Amino acid sequence: MVLARGTTASVTATATSSVGVTKVEFYVGSGLLGTTTSAPYTVPWNVPNRNNASYTIKAIAYDATGRTASATITVTAK
């Protein structure tokens, strides 16, 4: 995925659980970008202004029993 550098992107995850999702955490690399506790699970990300830089974005969803699920994507700023 390619994003325009120097802009703000919405990072979104879809999460469901039969016992309820308690939170979704978003990371860029190893740094916590944000946490949300209600759907839609979305946080803003200020895309750095570095041309052709790649970033790994990870979402981790937690449910009421402590189980987790995650998804990762790589984006490039252009």
- State the secondary-structure class: mainly beta
Following the backbone from N to C, one meets helices and strands in this order, namely EEEEEEE
Q: CATH superfamily membership, which one?
A: Immunoglobulins
Compute the separation of the termini in Å: 10 Å
Question: Could you estimate the helical fraction of the residues in percent?
Answer: under 10%
**Number of DSSP strands?**
7
Query: What is the averaged pLDDT score?
Result: 97
Task: Summarize the main sheet.
Answer: 5 strands, mixed
Overall CATH architecture: Sandwich
Q: DSSP helix count?
A: 0
Query: Ranges with pLDDT <50 over ≥5 residues?
Result: none
Strand content: over 45%
Order of adjacent strands in the largest pleated sheet:
1-7-6-3-4
* CA-based shape: elongated
